[in-house]
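In line with agreed milestones, the collection of sequences with tokenised folds has grown. A representative record is reproduced below.
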Amino acid sequence: NTNKKSRRKDMFYTGATWLRGTPLISAITSVCASSFLLFGYDNGVMSGVVISSYWLDAMGNPSTIIVSTITALYDVGAVFGAVAAAFTTEQLGRKRSLLLGSFIVVIGSILMGTCVERIQMMVGRIVTGVGIGYLMSTAPVYQSEICQPSQRGWQICIQVSMMLFGLMISYFMNYGLYFHPGDIQWRFPLLFQILFAIYIIVVTTFLPESPRWLMWHRPSNNEGPEVLSRLRNRPMDDSMVVEEKTGILEAIRIESQEEGTWMDLFRDGGTKADKRFYLALGIQFMQQLSGINIVTYYAPTLFTESLGMTQERSLLMGSFLQVWYLLASFLTWYIIDIVGRRRLFITMALGMCIVLILEGACVAINNWASNIAAVVFVFAFESCFTWGWMATVWLYSPEVLPLKIRAKGAALAAAADFVGNFLVVEITPPALQNIGYKTYIIFAIFNLVNALIVFLFYPETMGLPLESVDLIFIHPDEDTDLSSSKNKSFYQQLQWWVVPKSWEMVRSQKITGNSRLIREDFVDDNGNERISANNSGDAEGKISNTQRDDDVARFDHIA
């Protein structure tokens, strides 16, 4: 019996051994993408539910404030789920965390779809949010740990596009059920998302745990290298597998030494860890202040109350809006590593500011021509958001955070996103009802402020190795000793030099054409020059010692 239990436990961690190579990676990608799809679907499904007369009757015809609270409780649950994942994911593993999040979503969906009173709906929204918080904190980590580094940026864009696909499904679901009177209008959409969660549960059962997690937490069982060889579809003694295994073990060694506490989120630590944590929190919170969830959650409400459309037409227009949202997201796949993060943040925030001012003006004028223009501006707003503030935000937070607080900081940054989401969803309906077009002007001002904050404080990270981002925040004339931080000048505290320095490093990175030159080959964790014996003159296209000296000199000049 003991041997059987041990074998079953081993099979849980290694998954179905007949899955290898591309089919295995595709299965893992489908699970992670389904997590994002579920997130998008759950974001959009309430847009049609809250305007259904049958749902309103079942909820006792609640006030606008109660409706917005019921909708926003989902984000309260998501905050708790994301924070809980920060504490438990490393202990449970990626696979168990995905299963746990999916089971919680199933329970929450059943509570919502079968509810007979308002309290049950509220509890269901919170429980579903907790499950989504778990999935959204775990899926990106799992995906990044099984993919090769060159694939990670693309994977984030793919997953965000799948989130928009889920959003589109929910809108068309609401439109189709509009023609079916009765409680099915709102019960079926809320229960339908169970299928996505069940898919994640079933497929995840056959998947292996992350090889990185296995090598860290179960090093004696040799399961990590076995899973890695299956992911790369090569024998365990293949040079590529051995090299990647060695790199993972080295990273584990470094990370175990650098693992930070929760208090390290608020300490300088010599690399401005606290300020970088605030940057990650800020960019995720500012994403919600852009006003995107005015459109995501309340597009049909916006079309009916602000533009005077019928319920049927508003649902159809909302569905077309999400189709455009999805199509527009594909452009981000191409421009995110060409234009850069800062340029996308700033230009698209200014674009959203202009569009929202025009939208508010059209709503204030309120005639046939202005209403047509208002619809066009809603489409333009979603374009600006998905090009500049969708995938880019989810990519930027882990890029800017230092190694020792990356996991905790990224989880709390996601929680900040959900907090902002809650606030926007909570205030939007009463704002539209009470101050009308001025709501759009308020969010236009938020976008202008967002652009200014990014312009002043947010460095560029495009193309930089994660470790080299540390060097952006170290001023050459600054004492990095934490004890002297109180004596630093106002100029040094604000770090105006971070932004231009980051651009210099990005340009240097393009010149060298090798993402490992700057940090991994030449600079140790303290920013000192380091020439690795393992990297001098091997046969993998490394540069000569003379060229290396030239590049070190160039980097020293930049840094």
